[in-house]
Amino acid sequence: MAEIYDDLIQLKAHLERQRELKNSGVLIEKHNPENALASILQELENCQRCDLGKTRNNLVFGKGNPNAELMFIGEAPGGDEDLKGEPFVGRAGQLLGKIIGAMGKTRDQIYIANILKCRPPENRNPKPTEISVCSPFLKRQIEAIQPKVICALGTFAAQTMLNTDTTIGRLRGRPHPFNDTCVLVPTYHPAYLLRSPSKKKEVWDDMQMIMKLLDWKTPAKSA
C-alpha cells in the first residue's frame, strides 16, 4: 500500500505540473465543453457508421457534468440504456449511483459514458470494427470534458482504453497514466458486483484512491 500511495503522490504532482504548463498564461480560445459535446452529439445523430445503427433503439451518448473532474466509462449500453438513451440506468447503474453517493457526489457532478454508443445485440462484446468506428468520438468527449481521472468500469473498458490484455484483477488497485493531464483507474464493473458482492470492498478501495487523486474528502458517515 505504501508503494501505491507514493505512486499517487507522484502522479498528482505530475498532473499538476502539466496543468500549470497548460494554463501558463498563453492566450488561447476559451474552452467550452458544452459546445464541444453538443457538436460531437450532432455528428452522431442518426449514426449508421456500423451495423449497430440498424439494431439500436436509441443512441446512448453520455450524461453528466461537462466540467467533471471524474469520468466513468463502461463498455456499451445494455437493454435499459438502449430504451432510455442514457448510460447506466439499469440495476448496474443504480449500484453505480450508490457508489458515487458514497463518494459524496451525485451523478450530475461526474460524467458517465461508454466505449460504444449503441447496444450490441444480446449484450455481446463489442467487435474491433465497432470500437474503431466509435472510439474516436469517445476520445473527443474526453478531450472536451478534460477530466482529471477516468474510471474504467470492467475488463473490456479497462483493456480497451489501456490497449492491453492484462486481466482486470491485475490492472485494478493502482492508477495508470492516460494522457498528459489525466490518469485512469480501472475497477470492476457494477454488473459484476451484482454477481460477486464480495468484490465491493476492492471497488471501494479504488474509489478511495480516486478521491485521494482528486483531493475529495471522504464523506462523514451518518449516525
What topology does this entry show?
Layout: H1 2-22, H2 33-44, H3 52-55, E1 63-64, E2 70-74, H4 79-84, H5 91-102, E3 111-114, H6 128-145, E4 149-153, H7 155-162, H8 168-171, E5 176-179, E6 182-187, H9 190-195, H10 200-214
Parallel strand pairs: 2-3, 2-4, 4-6
Antiparallel strand pairs: 1-3, 5-6
Protein model, in words:
By secondary structure, the protein is an alpha/beta fold. It has a single domain, classed as 3-Layer(aba) Sandwich (Uracil-DNA Glycosylase, subunit E), CATH 3.40.470.10. The protein is 48% helix and 12% strand. It has helices at residues 2-22, 33-44, 52-55, 79-84, 91-102, 128-145, 155-162, 168-171, 190-195, 200-214; strands at residues 63-64, 70-74, 111-114, 149-153, 176-179, 182-187. Helix 1 packs across helix 10 and helix 2 runs antiparallel to helix 6 (128-145). The model is unreliable at 25-29 (pLDDT under 50).
Write the H/E string, N to C: HHHEEHHEHEHHEEHH
Number of helices: 10
Question: Largest sheet, order of strands side by side?
Answer: 1-3-2-4-6-5
Radius of gyration: 17 Å
> Mind telling me the CATH class?
Alpha Beta
| Major beta sheet summary | 6 strands, mixed
Fraction of residues in β-strands: 5-15%
* Name of the CATH homologous superfamily: Uracil-DNA glycosylase-like domain
The structure class reads alpha/beta
Number of strands: 6
